TrEMBL record:
Protein name according to UniProt: Pilus formation protein N-terminal domain-containing protein
Superkingdom: Bacteria
Biased composition (Low complexity): 223-239
Annotated region (Disordered), positions in chain: 222-257
Length: 257
């Protein structure tokens, strides 16, 4: 691996899960409380919403159409998975309190001296991530609605990538899974239940900055059902034992003369 790694924003269409998830989100979707919103996806295996009290998501049977429903004012995240790739969307329901983007952008400019932003049709953010301070400041900024993944152009110094990988590994260890770099991407491996696999993808997203190609080699197995007790057949009511009364032998009588 070279001294620096170049990571670009998602190049695939927004409705197709991207190469891998990391801050910022791939798409920001506004919703209204109590109303439904439909998205047609190219392909999708499953979806999971972080906070179902804010919004829910359902893949309609027999199609790749996604039904989003807003429930209460707020923000939540939606994880989408298809064919070994995943993406994360932000679902914003109603008008939640505004985020403090200005102060976070100022902190990121201070920590990343060459950070540049553009507006208009070429809207985006570029920076060289040289140290942990820059990475941390960018993560705080990119957790907001300020940018989506395709608007990023980041260059990482190798020590920062190693630090980011260490964070990912720490998040995966309690789940029994492993992560390593292969070229410019991260390889996830191990065996997991669907629930643990989902948690691993959330960990990768939350601990990473910028787009990182993913090779998902996790073997997903359904949890084993508990062994059923052997069928003992219908219960039979035990009858009480028969009580037999033993009578004493009859007394001998003398014959009369």
């Amino acid at each position: 691996m070279s001294a620096r790694m170049y990571a670009v924003g998602a190049l695939l269409a927004l409705l197709v899960p991207a190469l891998a998830g990391a801050w910022p989100v791939d798409l920001s979707v506004p919703l209204e409380p109590g109303k439904e919103h439909f998205h047609k996806l190219a392909t999708v295996d499953w979806v999971e919403v972080e906070d179902a009290s804010v919004a829910t998501a359902e893949v309609l049977p027999g199609s790749n159409e996604l039904l989003l429903t807003g429930h209460s004012t707020g923000r939540t995240l939606l994880l989408l998975y298809a064919e070994g790739r995943f993406a994360v969307w932000r679902l914003t329901v109603g008008t939640p309190p505004p985020e403090d983007v200005a102060s976070r952008l100022a902190a990121a400019r201070k920590a990343c001296p060459d950070l540049k932003t553009t507006e208009g049709e070429e809207r985006g953010l570029s920076a060289t991530v040289k140290d942990a301070a820059c990475r941390t400041a960018l993560m705080e900024l990119l957790r907001t609605d300020a940018y989506v993944a395709r608007e990023l152009d980041l260059t990482f110094d190798l020590p920062v990538l190693q630090e980011q990988l260490a964070s990912v590994v720490a998040g995966l260890q309690p789940l029994g899974l492993e992560a390593r770099y292969s070229g410019a991407g991260i390889v996830l491996s191990g065996t997991a239940t669907p629930e643990v696999h989902h948690r691993a993808l959330w960990e990768l997203f939350r601990r990473s900055v910028g787009r990182v190609p993913l090779s998902d080699e996790v073997e997903v197995k359904a949890p084993e059902a508990p062994a059923a007790a052997p069928d003992a057949g219908p219960a039979v009511k035990a009858e009480p034992p028969i009580q037999v009364e033993v009578l004493p032998p009859p007394k001998k009588r003398k014959a009369r003369p």
